[in-house]
C-alpha cells in the first residue's frame, strides 16, 4: 500500500567510515525477526539528538538525554522493537539501564556512552533478559555494510525498510551521509520522530551539530504527520564520526557548513517522507503548504489542522473533491483573527477558492483530476504576511483502521 | 450501527405551546426527502443561541447573529439540509438573505425576525430558488405536534432522527421542553453543534436565557466529539415562548430558575449524546472523565487528546485493551508541566495505570472485559487539583471511513 515508495537496495546505501551495524533476533515480541540493532561509533564521534515532547516519554528517551548531557563520548546506540518501554515506571528505567550496562561491558566502554531506544507497544514490561541475551549476536555481526539490515531491524508496523544515502564532495573530500528511519503510525513528531538515525563521516563540532539537528528536524521529521498521535519514543539522532580528512565543521558561516547542512536536510527529508509514504493504510502522499502567514507558527497550525482532519483525509482516500472540508479545517485551526475573505485555496495548480469563496471558474472535473493522483499538493494562501510552512501527510483509509484495530493481536 | 440509541416515538415528544413545526420536500440535494424545516414561534418568545467559532462560518451563522443582535423578536427558524452554504462568499450571503425575506413575507413578519440555518456540503452554491419554492409547503403543514418530523427534516448523514422531551412542574405550572438535534460527522462543537434546537413554553428573561444557553452548551454540545472537525455551521438555539402562567424566570437565584436550568441541561445532554450514539460508524459510546486537574481547561485538553486520538479510537473499535495509547495521548495533550508519576488511569472500575506506570495488579483480562462493552468510561486522575471535565465520544471504525469516503457521491 505504500505510496510511490522508492526501491531501496542495500547496495545503494554507502558505508559510513566509523559506523558499524549489527542485529539480533532476540524474540522480544515475536520469533524469527530482526528486533535488536546495535550501531557502534568510532571513538571521537560527535552525536546530537532531539526527542519527543510527550510527557509520558519512554524510559530510554530519559536515559538518552542523560547520557548525551554527560558528554562522555557516545560509542554505541542500541534499539529494540516490539516494546516501547513507555508507561513502565521505575521498572522500565531499571530495564533500560541494565541494557546499557550490558552493552557497555560487551564493548568495553562505560554505560553513559550508550544511547538506548525502544519502539513497540506501550504499557508492557520490557523483556530485558531476552534483549540482553541478544546483544552478543548483534555485536558478532557488526559491519559497516549493514545499513539495510539496520533499517529492517527497527521496523514495527512499517511494511518496508526505510533508508537513504548521500555522497557529497566538500573541498575535495568525500562526505557520506547514510540514515535509517522507522514509523508508520503514532506519527506526529514533536521534536523528531521515532526513529531516525543518520550517520556521517564528517567531523562536526558539538554546538554546530546540536543546532543543525534542530534545524533539520523542524524541516523534516517535525513536518510530517500520519495520525496526529505524538509517540512516547520519538528520537532523531545524527552521529558524525569525523573519519575524514575534511577539517572540522566548527562554524556556521562557511561553504562547507552550508554544503553539509543541505545534504543533511535532504537526507532527513527523504527519511521523513518515507515514513509518510509507508503511513499505515496510506494510498496518497499529500503535501500541505500554507503561505502568506504572519509567522511560521500559524502556517504550521493551519497545515496541521488540514493534515489531521479525518474528513479531509477520507476525502483524499476517496479521490472526492469535497474541498469545503479543507476550508472548514482552516477555519477551526485556531488562528482567531483570520480574515477568510483573503484566503485562496489551490489543489496543485487548480484555484478552488478565491477570496474565501468558491472560485467562479472552478470546475468540479478539475478538482477530480487532481484528487485522483497519488501525490497531491494543497496550497493555502492566507494573504496576511510572508511566512510559510510545509507539512507532508497521507490519507485515512480502511487499512488504517484495520492495522490499528489488529496491531497487538 | 448506532450505539444504544433509544427508541424515539413521535408520541413521546410533548408539544410546546407557542411552537409549530412544518417541513417541505424541496429537492435541495436529493429528491423525496424532508429537507426544509420551518419552526414558527409565538409573538413574545425569547430566543438565544450560540454558534460555531469556525472562521469559515457559514452565511446563515453570520445572519443569525445579526438578527439576534437586532432584538426585533424572533418569530421563525428555517433550516435546510443538503447544502451548508459555507465557503460561498457574497453569493451565499445573498442566498441566505433572500431565504429570510421570502419566509418573512409569507409569515407577515420582518426579515430580521427570521433565523436561518443550513447543513450539508460546504463550498457549493445554495439552490436558493428550490429552497424558497419549498417554503409554502412547510408553512401549510405547520403544527405543534410535528417535532418528530422536524427531527427527520434536519438529518444529513444521521441514521436516526434525534429528539428529546421533558415535562416538569414548577410552582404548579407544567413547563415543557422539547428539542431536536442532528449531526454524525464533522462533530467537535466549539460553542455548540449543528444543529440543536430546544423549545420551551417557559417565560425567560433575555439575559437569563443568554447565560443559560452558554452554561448548558458547555456541558452538553460542547462536551462531545466524533472526529475533531469543528463544523462551519454549528448552532444551538433555545426558544422560550412564555406560553405559561408561570411568572418570567428573571433571576438566577430562584428555585424556578434551578429547576428550569436542570431540565434544560438534561435535555441538552441527551440531545448531544444522541449525536455521539449515532456518530458516523460508531460502535462504542465512550465517556472520558479527567479529574484532579488544576483547571477545567487542562482537563478538557487532555480529554480531547484522548477523544481525538485515532489510535485510541481504533483500539476501542477492536475491543483491544492497548491502553498505552491512552497514556501517550495524555502525554502529548500539551499540558507541559504535567507530572506523569502522579497519574492514575481507570477503565470503568479497573485501575490500569497507577502513579504513571502499569498497575502491578492490572490483568489484561480485566481490561479486555471492559473493552468489549458497548459503553465504556475512561477515567484519568491527574492528582494536581480539584477541577474535572467530561467528554462523550465514540470509536473509529471502518464505517467512518466508508461513510466519509462516500458522503458526496
**CATH topology value of the largest domain in chain A:** L-amino peptidase D-ALA esterase/amidase
CATH class of the largest domain in chain A: Alpha Beta
Unreliable stretches of chain A, pLDDT < 50, 5 or more residues?
none
The CATH architecture of the largest domain in chain A: 4-Layer Sandwich
Strands in their spatial order, largest beta sheet of chain A: 13-12-11-14-10-15
Gross geometry of chain A: globular
Instruction: Tell me which protein chains meet in the greatest interface and how many residues each side has.
Output: A-B, 70 and 71 residues
How many runs of DSSP E, i.e. beta strands of chain A?
15
Helix count of chain A? Answer: 11
Q: Which percent range fits the helix content of chain A?
A: 25-40%
Termini of chain A, distance in Å? 21 Å
Oligomer: homodimer
Pathway (chains A, B): Amino-acid biosynthesis; L-arginine biosynthesis; N(2)-acetyl-L-ornithine from L-glutamate: step 1/4; Amino-acid biosynthesis; L-arginine biosynthesis; L-ornithine and N-acetyl-L-glutamate from L-glutamate and N(2)-acetyl-L-ornithine (cyclic): step 1/1
Site (Involved in the stabilization of negative charge on the oxyanion by the formation of the oxyanion hole) (chains A, B): 119-120
GO biological process, one term (chains A, B): ornithine biosynthetic process
Function (chains A, B): Catalyzes two activities which are involved in the cyclic version of arginine biosynthesis: the synthesis of N-acetylglutamate from glutamate and acetyl-CoA as the acetyl donor, and of ornithine by transacetylation between N(2)-acetylornithine and glutamate.
